[in-house]
Amino acid sequence: MRSDRGQKAGWPLTLAAAGGIAFLHLPILLIFVYAFTTEEKSFQWPPPGFTTQWFAVAWNRPDVWDALILSLKVASIATAIALVLGTLAAAAVARTQFFGREAISLLVILPIALPGIVTGIALRSAFSLAEIPYSMWTIILGHGTFCVVVVYNNAVARFRRTSSSLIEASMDLGANGFQTFRYVILPNIATALLAGGMLAFALSFDEVIVTTFTGGQQSTLPIWMLQELIRPRQRPVTNVVAVVVVLATFLPILAAYYLTRDTESVAGSGK
Amino acid sequence: MSEVAATSILPKTDGPLGRLSDLFWRRPGLLLLLMLLPPLLWLGIIYVGSLIALLLQSFFAIDDFSGLVVYEITLDTYKQLLIPANFDIILRTILMAAAVTVASAALGFPIAYYAARYATGKWKAVFYLGVMLPLWSSYLVKVYAWKLILAKEGILTWIFEKLHLSWLLDAVLALPVIGGNSLSISYIGTFLVFVYIWLPYMILPTQAALERVPGNLIEASSDLGATPGQTFRTVLLPLALPGLIAGSIFTFSLTLGDYIIPQIIGSSRLFIGQAVYTQQGTAGNVPLAAAFSVVPIVIMGVYLWAAKRMGAFNAL
């Protein structure tokens, strides 16, 4: 299809593209430098000196640990809910034609298509109307809602690529619906679900806008960071937490990428 | 019954699971219903229910004397959106969203074009991850990084100083409206951070659209005597437009609803998101907050409708 393989890009384009990629990455790298600075009160550049003491200080802060644990709990439960709901919706939409199919895809996508603040204030006003007290579960209700779409997107793409003849063959050979699901469908969609689940986890772990509305007085890790940004107490600790958060989100993203990279090559999965 | 038919028809499956499976096979509609019910219940009750509750609240108004919500249907709250102070907030947010969208498209296009046309093999993966990692890394950490960069004692001021360009920075900051005391409390700062954070959302759909442009179209255009500029305007840009529009949906919508970036980096003048937040929080005027949040919904509704007509959804 392409006759231009091996052709080189002109230098202005190369420069613009490389510059753009650098623009996307340099600010994040800067955080790593600041985590080691000896300066406490300001964001002075260049840092006057380097130290690793802030990692120890951050390690001994109970408020950081509490926020981290709440974030992990919320993200795990929200991901589990999203996996179940997203897979069910994807299976229904990908396999069959029915009235209102488009409306269901729209409904699933809506929570991330609309600004997060709309989702947040909508949930908050619903909670106050229904007089539901804020708890970990109100946060999970919000997170579950917008995590469904990432699982759904991954699963629906995989379902479309999985040949339906595999399922027919399984049924012809005497497997019932549950056996077919367990031995044929699940292995086919497993990596897509794993990737979707990791993205959902990363999304929930990082969410701040909806959480400010549904969290009440509780702090997830992003809420803790937001409070530090608005009213800084100990800046170096914030730097250290930022570095840990960056590393913790990079790993699932890299894993999700490698899981979905070569998915065309499953034998018999082509349509 | 012949012997062939007897062996080719499988025996009835037994056990409760088997019978259930048979039932689903005979009635696929039942299985479909059972599969759709949980996600529909969740999204329908929790999400759509909340949205409707929100919409309803925007038709109530707050009593000026008691400060309590009066539960009567009225359009008074929407009228309040039109008073100058509130209308300025809406206008400011839309202008910012438009500026951010244009800047993201200009910055993102070369990256998307390079990745789609020239990057192969290992470089393709580098570009993909190079866009995906900033996209997925923590939003607050990215905002925080920019607070470090834009601070008065931060790296940007230092760079300008080393290049002996401090006068340029001072001149930019002295500009009316968009300038300020330092970059981190000016509109320029807010704008930079918005562009930085939403740029990957522009690159990905643009790249997807550009991947589908065959390289020989570009060659044919230059064979027929078009200058690179003409090729870009008449061939490349029209074909990439659905992708750019798809990307602009994200950059526009995300800027409209964000209230954290202008709160942390920017002047004290409010954006829609901040107005919603203060109205429902400290001001306690939930109807006005609800009416404010209807604004982005309406704008995005119109925007999505226009984008659909231009075929942008095929590039998502």
What is the correct CATH architecture of the largest domain in chain A? Orthogonal Bundle
- Characterize the largest beta sheet of chain A: strand count, sense, and whether it forms a barrel: none
SS strand fraction of chain B: under 5%
Number of domains of chain A: 2
- The CATH superfamily of the largest domain in chain A is MetI-like
Main attributes?
heterodimer, A: 271 residues, MetI-like fold, 2 domains, 73% helix, disordered C terminus, B: 316 residues, mainly alpha, two-stranded antiparallel ribbon
What does this structure look like?
The complex is a heterodimer of chains A (271) and B (316). With 271 residues, chain A is an all-alpha fold. Helices cover 73% and strands 0% of the residues of chain A. Chain A is built from 11 helices and no strands. In chain A, helix 2 (53-59) crosses helix 11 (235-260) and helix 8 (177-206) runs antiparallel to helix 11 (235-260). The longest helix of chain A is centred in the N-terminal third of the chain and has 34 residues, at 62-95. Residues 1-5 and 264-271 of chain A have low confidence and may be disordered. Chain B is an all-alpha fold. Chain B has one domain (84-315): MetI-like (MetI-like fold), CATH 1.10.3720. Chain B is 73% helix and 1% strand. Chain B contains 15 helices and 2 strands. Chain B has helices spanning 3-8, 15-26, 28-58, 76-80, 84-117, 122-136, 139-150, 155-162, 166-173, 187-211, 215-223, 228-257, 261-264, 272-280, 286-309, and strands at 61-62, 69-70. In chain B, a hairpin with a 6-residue loop joins strand 1 and strand 2 (69-70). The model of chain B has no long low-confidence stretch (mean pLDDT 84).
